[in-house]
Design brief:
The complex is a heterodimer of chains A (263) and B (335).
Chain A: H1 2-16, H2 19-44, E1 49-50, E2 53-54, H3 55-68, H4 79-86, H5 89-93, H6 99-129, H7 138-163, H8 173-186, H9 198-204, H10 214-221, H11 226-261
Antiparallel strand pairs in A: 1-2
Chain B: E1 4-17, H1 21-30, E2 33-47, E3 52-56, H2 63-70, E4 78-83, H3 92-96, E5 99-103, H4 115-125, H5 130-143, H6 159-171, E6 177-181, H7 189-205, E7 209-214, H8 217-223, E8 226-231, E9 234-240, H9 241-248, E10 252-258, H10 260-263, E11 273-279, E12 282-287, H11 294-304, E13 307-313, H12 317-327
Parallel strand pairs in B: 3-7, 3-8, 5-6, 6-7
Antiparallel strand pairs in B: 1-2, 1-4, 8-9, 10-12, 10-13, 11-12
The chains are: A mainly alpha (263), B alpha/beta (335).
């Protein structure tokens, strides 16, 4: 646990050294946020409500997704992949810790950094330009915090799993791009899943992706009633456990291949 | 009780062949032809606690493959390997907690952070008691002169500084065994010397068993009493460095400057030595250990001619090793 914290601290610190990149990222996020908000306004036209989501909620949706996109690494991450294909993984295998936990701690440090440095300023700026919805009870804030953490953990496990493909393919980036493109679409990042036909939503719910974005959004906007909320959080936890187990199995197979075939 | 014992260790790799041309590439999609590379082909040795062993060999000889098996990064194709009481790849986590390893080309340090951050992290990685950790860090910092760059981000370090920091990182948890893969590669003379002194220190003072691979024979000459030479996956030599030199030292050379008037006229040849160079009054003789001693040759020459100056050149270890590789002096006749 102490090690997790120390790794987290260093990853956070490391992310701080890229200040210029953070600022550029923030500007980009904000610009696309405005763009997406404008598209939403055009789509709503004179309507005030679509699928139970008001125009104000829809604009808030664009703000929130833009704010948490770097926290959740929606566009994907390739660090583990690079470490496997460059052979740097060897130095980590020579340490007495779990490779999964090592990267999880690093990812968490980075994620929290992005949440504070990019997410927070972005949502505050949004609040200045638009009327945005805010959770209005303490319970809702708490549920949001839980949903956010679970969303990050699911996102991390999924990205880690995708990255493990590097054990089998020397050019795993293509697999990564496909997988992360899919994540973006099926997680409800582009549009709230409520806007889609029921069959499509049912399909999405068979995947872990809604747990990454859609759940966070619905919890934030408060569109889930008590039991629904509990079910949404449990479903996130379910996907986390499942992905964790798969990661461990695939990791073991990958390391076995590496140590037997020499990578 | 040996700290490392290796018996008939093999590691074979399958390497896929690529056919040439378009037709070959298309055929390659359906079936791959592969060749078997015997990177390590039946080696046996053992290392006693406290030894400092040099592991030599040309590129592709199997040095790194052996080291990877010893550190648990590769599983042997066959053979036995027991190191520090463990089968490295089977009990990886418990095993790596008690060893240190530096692979010269890679770093365990965090690229973007000050050196000290990476070093202090190791206290938690290896769960070293705080006091011991402080003590070790202070000692290594002194010996390796890390002070001036402890707060510099790793990416701004010179190669020599980075290597010193990496070696420090491999030892802070007081491992029983240290594996070094090319620890001095690409370093200048001063940096090499500092690292060698440190390796000697931790070997002598702390009793850490060290196995190092290197291309640099001066590393071996200055550090190791025992060397192992590997080529084509086979162990060619395992023993004292001095014995190696005696056995395969090749010919020594005597450089003689004769007095001016002797030079041109006389024939100057001596039994047991051959003239390999003649440049005015300077003549270079080459002679084998078995045929004549240096002092014998000198007294023979000085009895016959007037000599102004002379010097004996020992063949250097580099030449010796090169001859061992090239002429396969140690290759067993079987197979």
């Amino acid at each position: 646990m102490r090690l997790f914290f120390e790794l987290f601290k260093r990853a956070f610190q490391r992310a701080l050294t890229y200040r210029a990149a953070s600022i550029a990222g923030l500007m980009t996020n904000f610009f696309f946020g405005l763009l997406r908000a404008a598209v939403i306004m055009a789509l709503y036209g004179s309507r005030t409500d679509v699928s139970g989501i008001s125009i104000q909620d829809a604009i808030t949706f664009t703000g929130i997704t833009q704010a948490i996109l770097s926290f959740l690494n929606i566009f994907g991450s390739y660090d583990v992949m690079n470490s496997v294909s460059s052979g740097e993984i060897a130095t980590d295998l020579l340490k007495p810790y779990s490779y999964f936990a090592f990267w999880m701690a690093r990812d968490f440090g980075n994620a929290i950094n992005q949440l504070l440095l990019r997410g927070l300023p972005l949502i505050l700026t949004y609040a200045v330009f638009f009327h945005i919805t805010l959770p209005n009870t303490l319970a809702q804030w708490l549920a949001l915090a839980v949903a956010l953490m679970l969303a990050w953990a699911v996102s991390f496990s999924w990205r880690f799993l995708v990255n493990l493909s590097a054990f089998w393919s020397p050019e795993a980036r293509g697999i990564g791009r496909l997988a992360f493109g899919l994540t973006m679409f099926l997680s409800g990042f582009m549009m709230p899943l409520r806007f889609f036909p029921d069959w499509f939503v049912a399909l999405c719910n068979l995947t872990p992706f809604p747990s990454i974005i859609n759940t966070v959004i619905e919890v934030y906007l408060g569109v889930l009633g008590g039991p629904e909320l509990i079910r949404a959080l449990l479903s996130q936890a379910f996907w986390l456990v499942l992905l964790f187990v798969i990661c461990q199995l695939v990791m073991r197979a990958g390391v076995r291949k590496l140590v037997i075939q020499g990578g | 009780m040996s700290i490392i014992s290796v018996t008939d260790l093999h590691k074979h790799f399958k390497v896929n062949k690529h056919r040439s041309g378009l037709a070959g590439a298309v055929r390659g999609l359906f079936s791959t032809e592969s060749t078997l590379v015997r990177a390590v082909d039946g080696i046996s040795f053992s290392v006693e606690p406290g030894e400092l062993v040099g592991y030599l060999g040309p590129n592709g000889a199997g040095k790194s493959t052996t080291l990877k098996m010893l550190t648990g990064l590769l599983v042997p194709t066959s053979g036995q390997l027991l190191s520090n009481g463990h089968v490295p790849w089977r009990e990886r986590k418990t095993y790596v907690a008690r060893i240190g390893a530096v692979f010269g080309q890679r770093t365990t340090l965090w690229w973007d952070l000050p050196v000290i951050e990476s070093l202090e992290l190791l206290q938690y990685v290896y769960k070293v008691p705080r006091e011991r950790f402080r003590h070790n860090l202070a000692e290594f910092r002194e010996l390796l002169e890390l002070g001036p760059f402890l707060n510099t981000p790793v990416r701004s370090l010179s190669l020599g500084q980075r290597m010193r920091a990496d070696i420090c990182a491999a030892l802070l948890h007081e491992p029983d065994l240290l594996f070094l893969d090319e620890p001095t590669i690409g370093l200048d003379v001063v940096a090499k010397e500092r690292i060698r002194q440190f390796i000697r220190h931790i070997n002598r003072e702390r009793g850490v068993t060290v196995l190092l691979t290197t291309h640099d024979l001066s590393d071996v000459e200055k550090l190791c009493e025992r060397v192992m030479i590997i080529d084509h996956g086979r162990l060619l030599y395992d023993g004292q460095l001095a014995a190696l030199r005696d056995r395969f030292g090749g010919k020594r050379e005597l450089v003689v400057d004769f007095a001016e008037d002797e030079g041109a006229a006389a024939d100057l040849s001596v039994d047991g030595a051959t003239i390999i160079e003649r440049d005015g009054p300077r003549v270079v003789y080459s002679f084998g250990r078995e045929t004549i001693s240096a002092s014998g040759l000198i007294s023979l020459l000085s009895a016959r001619y007037r000599i102004r100056d002379l010097s004996v050149r020992e063949p250097d270890i580099e030449d010796t090793i090169r001859r061992i590789y090239e002429e396969r002096l140690l290759e067993k006749p079987s197979n």
